[in-house]
Specification:
The complex is a heterodimer of chains A (115) and B (112). Chain A has 115 residues and is mostly beta strands. In chain A, 0% of the residues lie in helices and 56% in strands. In chain B, the strands form 2 sheets. In chain B, strands 2, 4, 5, 9, 10 and 11 form a 6-stranded mixed β-sheet that branches. A 5-stranded antiparallel β-sheet of chain B has the order 1-3-8-7-6, with no helix packed on it. Classes of the chains: A mainly beta (115), B mainly beta (112).
Amino acid sequence: ETGVTQTPRHLVMGMTNKKSLKCEQHLGHNAMYWYKQSAKKPLELMFVYSLEERVENNSVPSRFSPECPNSSHLFLHLHTLQPEDSALYLCASSQDLGSFGNTIYFGEGSWLTVV
Amino acid sequence: GENVEQHPSTLSVQEGDSAVIKCTYSDSASNYFPWYKQELGKRPQLIIDIRSNVGEKKDQRIAVTLNKTAKHFSLHITETQPEDSAVYFCAANRPGTYKYIFGTGTRLKVLA
């Protein structure tokens, strides 16, 4: 299954590093998302893009910087992260925005460890 | 703010038994409730959903029930198999937005 693919799957970075997570969707969807998944916490919506325009920046620290160059690709640029940022970062897409019957398709996630 | 409470956080059942996971939501306007399954190291995947105009929906061994008055909905898995072992997430939508409120997940272990 290759609907939503994420790279890298695992990333270890120091607090002074700069790295990027990449996401690509092959479903022809118009909306893309970044979620953060931490142990024993609900999925946390970070950013939402619709047709390449950002529609949500959910009070996320500026050390996370998204980029959506086209409707198929989404990046999450990371710099000067903190250890508490260690988590699974899930990219997702959906046909459109709207939460009624609008299935969200997730990627397999990027495991981020900040040391 | 709106939230979704999910219970239990872990659940162990013998193979062949049934498993029930319950979620309670706070926003009475929520009208769409998906359930996601996330196997170890894999992506969350939609397994079943229900809209507020129905009380129950079935798909083979899984079913979801909705009680709008009590604002809770449940996932039922019958004749459990080892491959049902995973983390299950419920969610409720926020009508008029693109947002979902997710539960904290239930780790289901099916013991052979």
